[in-house]
Specification:
2 strands; 13 helices; globular; about 60% helix; A middle domain of Talin 1; mainly alpha; 2 domains; single chain; two-stranded antiparallel ribbon
Length: about 350
């Protein structure tokens, strides 16, 4: 059984779907895989390599200049992850990779508790490549690294054994991210020749047809929008600035919360448009040349992006600001409208009805 960050069940609705030939799905799936997914995983892989190089350089010679460099590399790698984060099917599902890269939201503060325990014990044997990959997923990726490089960066300069251990932990995380990114990219590239003909451990085909592959791309579009609305905005936005919860924001320590949303929306835009090639928008217009559905969605998505870009403070500060709070509320409403657009007009346009099982516990 396939598991998704957001599980999407697509049901045939109406006779229009039967007019779509497998070759038409194949064309779209190949474009989205070759032009959207693979280049973004390549960028992510390269940026994690650069991050690992910067981490080792810093730990060999700790300095403010080298700290700024590793923080810059952190942002570059996090940018790359935000651009591919919405693809939550395929190799990223294996070996808990998704959570190992970015364990968030951390509703029970698991990452903080595990990090405190690890830093207190200072057991270097846990930081070998073999053992580190088996530790708590909350310690293996960006959230733990963000704490070490931003909110706790001064401790890296203490010139004691604690600082040495922290640096070893930093490089263990960056090496882990680099290896995960390389593995995911390799597995996508290896499968590209017979793309998506993936078998499970029981040797049952992962997909039964090209239409199921398209379902995953469509769920990636919707799941991206839903994640932004439910997790990245609604969880922290209260009815008033005073009732908001700024520390629930994604990556607030590095002040990336709003940037991540913008990059997620830009990725949704590129997914829908097939990176300028044959995209979901062209697929919709191929099915019905008279429809305005694709054009309207692109216009409203661009309008929503404009709203996000016009928020002038980091998101965790904006929700507490009397003027910016209203702008964040506007962004939340527009995200909800975009989700409704996908559920309604887009699902109708491609002949697929959408039913959802949302995030466990939400």
């Amino acid at each position: 059984m396939r598991t998704f960050f957001i599980t999407v069940v697509l049901v045939l609705s109406g006779s229009a779907i039967f007019a779509i030939e497998p070759e038409q799905y194949f064309r779209l799936n190949q474009v989205l895989a070759q032009k959207h997914v693979l280049p973004r995983y390549k960028i992510f892989s390269q940026q994690t390599i650069e991050l690992d190089i910067s981490a080792n350089k810093f730990c060999q010679a700790p300095s403010e200049a080298n700290l700024h460099q590793i923080q810059f590399s952190f942002h570059s790698a996090a940018d790359a992850w935000a651009g591919i984060q919405h693809i939550q099917f395929g190799p990223i599902e294996e070996n808990l990779r998704l959570h190992r890269i970015f364990y968030w939201p951390d509703k029970h503060n698991t990452g903080s508790r595990h990090l405190v325990r690890l830093l207190k014990n200072e057991d270097k044997s846990l930081l070998t490549s073999e053992r580190f990959s088996l530790l708590s997923v909350a310690l293996q990726g960006f959230p733990a690294l963000e704490r070490l490089l931003f909110s706790q960066s001064e401790a890296l300069f203490s010139r004691d054994q604690s600082a040495v251990f922290r640096c070893l932990l930093v490089t263990s995380i960056t090496e882990n991210l680099q290896k995960i990114a390389a593995s995911v990219l390799l597995e996508w590239e290896e499968e590209t020749t017979e793309f998506f003909k993936i078998s499970t451990s029981s040797d049952v085909n992962y997909y039964s047809g090209e239409n199921e592959i398209f379902q995953d791309f469509l769920s990636s579009l919707y799941g991206n929008l839903r994640s932004i609305h439910d997790l990245k905005i609604r969880r922290l936005l209260g009815e008033t600035p005073q009732k908001s919860h700024p520390k629930r924001a994604e990556a607030w320590r590095s002040e990336r919360s709003l940037l991540n949303i913008i990059l997620n929306l830009e990725a949704a835009q590129k997914l829908f448009q097939g990176e300028g090639d044959f995209g979901i928008d062209d697929f919709i217009e191929m099915l019905d040349p008279e429809t305005n559905t694709a054009k309207d969605f692109k216009s409203y998505l661009e309008y929503t992006l404009k709203t996000a870009r016009n928020i002038s403070l980091p998101l965790h500060k904006a929700v507490r600001d009397s003027q910016q709070h209203e702008q964040v509320e506007r962004l939340q409403a527009q995200m909800q409208a975009l989700m409704g657009f996908v559920l309604g007009r887009i699902s109708t346009a491609v002949g697929m009805g959408l039913g959802f099982n949302f995030l466990d516990g939400d």
